[in-house]
Amino acid sequence: MPTVKTNGINLYYEESGQGEPLLLIMGITAPGAVWKKHLEYWKQSFRCIVVDNRGVGQSDKPPGPYSTAQMADDCAGLLAHLKLDKVKVVGVSMGSTIAQQLAIRHPQLVKAMVLMCPWARCDNTAKDIFKHMIDIKARLRPEEFSRYIQLLIFSKASFDDEENYQGMLEDRENAKNDTNPQPLIGLEGQAAACMDHYVLDELPNISQAVLVIGGEEDKFTPPWMTKEVATLIPNADLHSYPESGHAFHWENIDDFNPRVNNWLLEN
């Protein structure tokens, strides 16, 4: 299992595919394996590097709080280990905040970015959602926590679709049987990074091409957050999926995978 010592921790990563390097950074609570349905498509065009962020999966889970700057430095150490620069980056949710910091702190490493459901700052509502997430993790069974996350990230249309809903039930059962769940300490560290992320002043300095994507019915990181990021970055394009939530990339996967793939090939 490939791990690299970076920024004081052991960071787990996997590689697949060939072509230009593409770093994939996952969101809060989730290991890199959650990229699977997108990785299967993108690895046909790119050398995909999937990482488990600190606090989850097979990477170290030290006590927090973490910061998005710290987690970006984790990724920078991985890229140094792989002797890579000017990589393309896709980050989702918390992963998008890490990607922003990677471009801010290590601009020489980033060629272009796709920022999925991003934010540049948290308002009080967002902070309370992250705090509530910690409270629920501490009190509920894994399958109950999984249901809460689904309520947070999927749109009504996904719950109304019986095939999609059956998939949600299976995911809850998988959470119940997970032999390596994220510990509370890891979630607490990641949530602190999400809540404290603030880059309003730095985003205008990002010069790389950026594609910002959001869901118009996202309850977790609502459209104003996505639009604010797209407005502040000079070379950003914005795409919004109607009737879609935080998990728009699963709800619209047949459009999303080729859309991102083609944009990355062109940039």
From TrEMBL:
InterPro entries to which the protein is assigned, alphabetical: AB_hydrolase, AB_hydrolase_1, AB_hydrolase_fold
Residue ranges of every copy of the AB hydrolase-1 domain listed in the record: 21-252
Cited Gene3D superfamilies: alpha/beta hydrolase
Database matches in Pfam families: Abhydrolase_1
PANTHER family tied to this protein: AB HYDROLASE-1 DOMAIN-CONTAINING PROTEIN, HYDROLASE, ALPHA/BETA FOLD FAMILY PROTEIN
Record-given protein name: Lipolytic enzyme
